[in-house]
Design goal:
489 residues, alpha/beta, Leucine-rich repeat, LRR (right-handed beta-alpha superhelix), 19-stranded mixed beta sheet, 15 helices, globular, LRR_dom_sf
């Protein structure tokens, strides 16, 4: 496999892969003035392809675009024997001539092979840190030795994402906090990291705590802990108390380590005036969700992301008991919630008048057909709908579902997937009752995963009636090599 560069141009939807002899022409023709995404993949045997001339070409062409605001460096894990031939630090980080005066976003995604260390990033941040607003760090080589002191140059920093093992040791968490003291953070997210303790307190004593309170944490609006090991919800609460301006809290993988005492402390904060501006929660708890919903019953909660949680009938009843929550909820994600029934989904769509984005778990087509007229959907403002249909019966259920779906005239995005429920070869029939969907004139994105019947005439019908679709249908190879028709946004 030859080394190649993947440069995305979001404005023109260009997604081109080129080998290095064409890099000059490609950059001249397609490089957007504001965003540069470089994805370099290398396999053993191509070491000699990375010549000084290649990198000089790249540096020269990049320099012609001083308006670049975003740089994304993506190098998936490669054989350790060839790590040293990937001179990111020589080309971008250590370059004396390459300057991006308007750089605001810097992403290192899965860069095991980059060999970026403190000495590499220090001079780069001295030049660019004052304009950076967002830093995304996936995985870095030798990240257990990364001390993040270069973040002290990022005084305009608003958003930080740390993933992989970048926060494996407690001292680096403390160093990061000290570095962020010079900025006004609004968003902080950790994903798949290892905290050695059960808490997030970045201070050792009262003096350090007093210093910490002078830092930027008071301004954080979005806080996310995803796939965090060894960290309990009890360890988050005291830290989150120091962030009174929170709008969004995401705590995932907390279900197995949450005790009742810790949950009660979290509930007390939700019930009180600890986070008066909180409007969004993402939780995967398998018990205690009903209490959390009741705790925010009188608040203006607009988003509930409960994917993989234990959402069930009792939790739904708790939600219905809050007229204010029913009226304000705009986003509800129930993906992979095994206790949610099709009848419950019908009730939700008939109860939540202002819902705009809804992701449902599996709906049985037989239930869809039987309950289709039992509940009058009131969510006529729904703009994004994702549903998985498990097939048990014939096409009647699909036709009935399409009749109901056709009422959602404001719909802009639609996903429907199917799971074959018996051994009769039944699949989701996209073509059954298709005329009922003529009214979906605002559709911009449609994804019918694994439809059993989608002819050229059906595709032509979509292009005729759904004129706002961004592009024509095209086949995409999905899992298990099954054909997947999708109309990408």
């Amino acid at each position: 496999m030859a080394p190649h560069f993947l440069i995305r141009h979001p404005g023109k939807k260009i997604d081109s892969v080129i080998t290095h002899p064409k890099i000059r022409d490609h950059l001249v023709r397609y490089l957007t003035p504001t965003i540069l995404t470089i994805c370099i993949r290398v396999c053993k045997g191509w070491q000699k392809s990375f010549t000084p001339n290649l990198w000089r070409e790249f540096r020269l062409e990049s320099y012609r675009h001083p308006g670049i605001q975003t740089i994304i460096l993506h190098a998936p894990f490669v054989h350790t024997l060839i790590c040293n031939i990937m001179p990111f630090q020589d080309v971008i980080v250590k370059s004396d001539t390459l300057v991006f005066p308007h750089l605001s976003v810097l992403t290192f995604e899965d860069n095991y092979a980059c060999h970026l260390e403190n000495d590499d990033l220090e001079p780069f941040m001295k030049k660019h840190g004052h304009t950076l607003k967002r830093i995304y760090i996936g995985q870095l080589y030798n990240d257990d030795q990364m001390e993040f002191e270069w973040m002290t140059h990022c005084k305009a920093l608003e958003s930080v994402y740390l993933g992989g093992r970048a926060m494996q040791y407690e001292k680096y968490w403390r160093l990061c906090v000290k570095a962020w003291r010079y900025s006004r953070l609004k968003e902080l997210e950790f994903h798949d990291v290892h905290f050695p303790a059960d808490d997030l307190k970045p201070w050792k004593d009262e003096q350090e705590k007093a210093d910490f309170l002078k830092g930027p944490m008071m301004s954080i609006r979005r806080f996310s802990l995803r796939k965090i090991y060894q960290l309990k919800i009890s360890g988050c609460t005291e830290f989150l108390k120091l962030c009174p301006d929170l709008r969004h809290i995401c705590l995932l993988n907390g279900s197995s380590s949450t005790d009742r005492t810790a949950l009660q402390e979290f509930l007390d904060c939700l019930k009180g005036n600890q986070w008066p501006h909180l409007t969004s929660l993402r939780l995967d708890l398998h018990w205690g969700l009903d209490q959390i919903i009741e705790a925010r019953a009188e608040a203006d909660l607009t988003e509930l992301d409960l994917e993989d949680s234990g959402f069930d009938k009792d939790i739904w009843n708790a939600l219905q008991r809050s007229p204010r929550l029913v009226a304000t909820l705009e986003t509800l994600n129930l993906d992979n919630c095994r206790y949610v029934t099709s009848n419950m989904i019908h009730k939700m769509l008939a109860t939540l008048p202002n819902i705009k984005t809804f992701s449902a778990p599996v709906m049985h087509d037989g239930d869809i057909y039987e309950g289709i007229d039992s509940h009058r959907w009131v969510c006529l403002g729904l703009k994004s709908f994702k549903v998985t249909i498990r097939v048990y019966s014939g096409p009647e259920g699909h036709a009935a579902f399409h009749r109901k779906l056709g009422l959602l005239t404001n719909l802009e995005k639609l996903w429907t997937d199917n799971h074959v429920g018996d051994h009769n070869g039944l699949c989701y029939r996209l073509d059954v009752g298709l005329d009922a969907l003529k009214g979906l004139a605002h559709l911009k994105y449609v994804d019918f995963a694994k439809p059993s019947s989608l002819s050229n005439a059906d595709v032509s019908w979509m292009a005729t009636h759904w004129r706002r679709l961004e592009s024509a249908p095209r086949p995409v190879i999905g899992s298990y090599n099954k054909k997947r028709w999708t109309l990408p946004l």
